What does this fold into?
Amino acid sequence: MRKIVRNLLAGAGVLAVVLPLGGTASYAGGHKVTTPTLTGWASLPAGTFVPGSEPSGALVTGNLNGFTAPFADQPVQGFSGIVDNGDGTFDVLSDNGYGNQANSGDFLLRVQKLAPVFRTGEVDVLGGITLTDPDGKVSWKLTREDRVLTGADFDPESIVRVADGSYWIGEEFGPYLLHFDRAGRLLDAPVPLEGVVAPETAARTGVTATARSSKGFEGLAQSADGRYLYALLEGTVTGDPAGSLRLNEFDLRRGAYTGKRWSYQLDNPDFAIGDAISVSAGRFLIIERDNGQGATAVTKKIYLATARGDRLEKTLVVDLMNVANPRKLGGFGTTFTFPFQTIEDVVILDDRTIAVLNDNNFPFSTGRSATAADNNEWITMALPRSLNVDRRLLK
It folds into this structure.
């Protein structure tokens, strides 16, 4: 019988536990639930940096919520995409830096390797890779002469790993699809999406922008057979109906878009998506959120979106502002909320269990406290109904 490797994270170590395919989810503790229920909580402190790295944040201004810039090292924070390694560790994509192209030229783009330790409520940082372009695949001038990529070059927001171990990353300054090897080296020229131009690319090329800043590829999903990518824009393209987002199919064999496209409709045109991942053919989990945090956070939801013709129909899976927490995990009450401005990571652990992470926009977001920079919180939730995940998508 095929086995799924799942992990019970105890102390600082990772203990692998093998469960039969039809067994109960280890993350759910083997308990059936009638409503989405918190089963794990861990937190990485906001002040977590890559030791022995480079100074960062020289151009950061404003309220830094207790921190002083520049920082002596590179922050580990700002998670905008996640890949399950299947062994209790995860590759997590750092965001572009400090909020915009102008102030992020000394933020080095990285994929961090992390492991949540739910027994202690901590997250172990196990290393990572820095993204580079040593072979000159980017045709325009980069920020650094050594071709190490920074937050002034690209704004990475979504990530998948394909069968050969390489990564595809969706970013927002193009928007582009970027292909990196397992060491973080860019393998191909950035792939644009015809008809969609971000202001950052418009400023560089003189082409008219058709998308708003920071509204590029926020979600990137992979088909179960590994052939296709599905890239979801965060914002509406000029001329499209208000609040409608384009999901575009990309053929990895051909290295080109197929022309197939679906439309995802936001609950409110002012909302945004945070992530999009595959569940099975034509089915996706999508994070949708308002721009509030703390007391102003209202809509933080995860939908199951199903392709119907050229549209995606939505069914609510989890309201992240109303999660049952009978064990009062994390020191919170029996109703758990996830009141962060940007929630940009969802990963399926098994048919009835998902994990979600916030992007803390270090050091700016203040969802837990109005006077302290947010940590990156890592939660797991048991679901009352099976997602019916294609098994090829499970680690």
The radius of gyration is 20 Å. The helical segments are 199-205.
